[in-house]
Amino acid sequence: MPHPGSNPDVVPPPSAASDRIRPSVSPATVVAFLATGALLVLAAGPVLAQGTASTGSVEDLSVWAAIILGLVEGLTEYLPVSSTGHLLVTTEILGLAETPEAEQALDTYAICIQAGAILAVFVLYRERITLMIQGLLGRSADGRRVLIGMVAAFAPTAVIGLVLVDFVRDRLFGVPPIAFAWLVGGVGILALTRSGVLKRGGTELTGINVRQAVLIGLAQAIALWPGTSRSLVTIVAGVLVGLSLAAAVEFSFLLGLATLGAATVVTAAQDGQQLIDLYGWVTPLIGMVVAFVSAVASIKWMVAWLQQRGLDVFGWYRIAIGLTTAAALAMGWL
């Protein structure tokens, strides 16, 4: 399905083409702004922690903490910077996971507020999703092809995730592995953009085949390592298997509906009642709403940015936040 846009490589969300944002700031300014924000959060962490988790118990999750976590989730979920890594480091900075019980509850909370970010894609890409539904009903060949691609990409990720979930949780959920993943991913983005790999043309999303989708799904499993970024590996994999950058970005967003949706449903079914018993309804709903609003802004900004620029800014940001986190670890701040 064609979309309007100043750059044929990357297009705005189908339902938001008329009000896209045109960025006017330089990549260096964006990196400096994001790095400064990370430093300010890191420096303010002890102060914020006094108001959000004074005793480290799960009942201490405040409205402010819910807003902060929702904002972090929404802003980072679809950017190639790793929402899981940002959420884990944020909970450490705010002192919210000081007991095993609190850590488990916050893991559930973080996954459940993804519902807000998922809804953002439903809203922005509702036309594409409508075509996929029509494809399911046999009314759209293009929609059916994209839907089959999503299913084919989701399947290997689901299988690998079920096999490795315990290993990942036991070995890789920590600040040091996340800092390392941020640095490696940042260097990788810069290497790929400098080589021109991410700028080459490719097929449109409606031309995706099962082989391409399966390879993207296999690559998505790499993002089980916190800090890697599901968005990053699926976009890069999409381009490498022959999709255009525009198609790879959109498919990454749509694939997130299946991947994040499945994780949210499973977690809510297993631990949702415990979450409500501990936090009530207010703070989870606040987190979801904030995640939705910030995810809408984040997606629209990213697509508008990529219309005129590349992924370099995310590479520099990952390196900046990776070095900042490593320095904080060395100084005993985390």
Structure description:
The structure is a single chain. The chain has 334 residues and is mainly alpha-helical. It has one domain. Helix content is 72%, strand content 0%. The protein is built from 13 helices and no strands. Helix 5 packs antiparallel against helix 11, helix 6 packs across helix 7 and helix 10 packs antiparallel against helix 11. The longest helix is centred in the C-terminal third of the chain and has 35 residues. It is globular. It starts with 26 loop residues before the first helix and ends with a helix.
Q: What would you call the structural class?
A: mainly alpha
Radius of gyration: 19 Å
* Outline type: globular
Unreliable spans: 1-11, 14-26, 36-58
> Percentage of helical residues?
over 70%
Mean pLDDT: 83
State the end-to-end distance: 47 Å
How many helices in DSSP terms? Answer: 13
**Hey, roughly how much beta strand do the residues contain?**
under 5%
H/E element string? HHHHHHHHHHHHH
- Count the beta strands: 0
Biggest beta sheet attributes:
none
Count of discrete domains: 1
Report a brief summary of the structure:
The chain is mainly α and about 325 residues long.
Labels describing this entry:
single chain; disordered N terminus; mainly alpha; 13 helices
